[in-house]
């Protein structure tokens, strides 16, 4: 260990401690020259088992046990301002430690006072002390109170010193940040000068724009003041619709997805190629079936109309009429469907070969999946388009 001086009452054999625990003794003390100045070299005899526990950047001080007692070497673990350990590495027999401080001694204090006294003129010192005594005459109580107040201020400041030290340390990082950003800051200032000149040149236009904005604001305030209740009511009326759309948003997604998936297939038979259309049409009539049983093949006939085969059979269906029409309110559907995959609104997964047949969700909508099997004539008849329905119910609602 190297120190600026060894101090009084520091002898070989003095103890060496680490965080208050004795780990060895001072083996020898010698005088050396370091950087052209005299210094003291200490050879420390430390137990080897403690070397790996002591960090390389350990703090070393020469302290005294009492005011007039012997001195010893005190090693402590280094910490930052927040009290966190910042140790690195460990000591080896070849490590050189620099002592950070040596306890102040009486002879050092007297030497310092003597050197100061030699440079002070006694006459000037007497005049200074006399002037100070006259200025403080009669102010002893106030001066004492000032000392008390200063002590109270220091009591408040002392707990904040760790934070103050941390803030001062952060000033270096702040300075580096501003130094790195200095070119951009100067560019910003130069641009600000140009912008300021432009604004100054367009001052009249800017004033007119501000006045127009103020007038527009007044007009808009009047409009919103009058229409505010209607806007609030409109927003309130949108809440149920928004909640409904939110509830059925999975089904909306399903619908759009299915339209996207079916569009290429629909384009193949709905004229998507621009020159052809695949179509299937049939004309059926219950009355035609009774009048001419051969009309039962109208389905086949409708597929062969383009070839001119069985065309008369396909046309026979127009004699009786068309399927039963939709009648209001008898044929109104039941708005009673609910549920989906897992009981929530949504759509099934994409239909593939492994997922066939697709699941069918049974819902109470008034539309039966079972065929309507009974013997009856089709309605309306062709004559009903002229004279209306003459016999029977207006419609058939299974």
Automatic annotation (TrEMBL):
GO terms for biological process: biological process involved in interaction with host. It holds the Pfam family Mce4_CUP1. Residues 3-77 form the Mce/MlaD domain. Residues 89-341 form the Mammalian cell entry C-terminal domain. One of its GO terms (cellular component) is extracellular region. This is Cell invasion protein. It comes from Mycobacterium lacus. The gene is mce1A_2.
């Amino acid at each position: 260990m190297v120190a600026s001086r060894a101090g009084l009452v520091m002898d070989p054999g003095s103890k060496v401690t680490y965080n208050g625990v004795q780990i060895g003794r001072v083996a020898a003390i010698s005088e050396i020259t370091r950087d052209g100045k005299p210094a003291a070299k200490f050879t420390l005899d430390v137990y080897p088992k403690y070397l790996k526990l002591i960090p390389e950047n350990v703090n070393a001080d020469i302290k005294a046990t009492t005011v007039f007692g012997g001195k010893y070497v005190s090693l402590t673990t280094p910490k930052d301002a927040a009290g966190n350990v910042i140790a690195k590495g460990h000591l080896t027999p070849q490590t050189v430690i620099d002592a950070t401080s040596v306890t102040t001694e009486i002879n050092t204090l007297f030497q310092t006072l003597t050197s100061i006294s030699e440079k002070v003129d006694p006459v000037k010192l007497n005049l200074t002390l006399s002037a100070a005594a006259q200025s403080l005459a009669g102010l002893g109580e106030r001066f004492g109170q000032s000392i008390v107040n200063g002590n109270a201020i220091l009591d408040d400041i002392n707990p904040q010193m760790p934070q103050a030290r941390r803030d001062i340390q952060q000033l270096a990082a702040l300075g580096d940040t501003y130094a790195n950003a200095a070119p951009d800051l100067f560019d910003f200032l130069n641009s600000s000068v140009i912008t300021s000149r432009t604004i100054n040149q367009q001052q009249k236009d800017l004033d007119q724009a501000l006045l127009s904005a103020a007038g527009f604001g007044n007009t808009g305030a009047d409009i919103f003041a009058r229409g505010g209740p209607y806007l609030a009511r409109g927003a309130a009326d949108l809440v149920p619709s928004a909640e409904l759309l939110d509830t059925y948003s999975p089904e909306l997604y399903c619908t759009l997805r299915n339209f996207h998936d079916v569009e290429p297939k629909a384009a193949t038979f709905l004229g998507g190629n621009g020159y052809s259309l695949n179509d299937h049409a049939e004309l059926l009539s219950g009355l035609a079936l009774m009048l001419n049983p051969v009309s039962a093949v109208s389905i086949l006939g409708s597929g062969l109309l383009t070839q001119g085969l069985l065309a008369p059979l396909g046309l026979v269906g127009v004699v009786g009429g068309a399927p039963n029409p939709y009648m209001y309110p008898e044929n109104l559907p039941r708005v009673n469907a609910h549920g989906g995959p897992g009981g929530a609104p949504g759509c099934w997964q994409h239909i593939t070969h492994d997922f066939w047949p697709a699941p069918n969700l049974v819902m109470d909508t008034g539309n039966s999946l079972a065929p309507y099997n009974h013997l009856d004539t089709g309605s309306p008849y062709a004559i009903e388009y002229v004279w209306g329905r003459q016999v029977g119910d207006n419609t058939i609602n299974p």
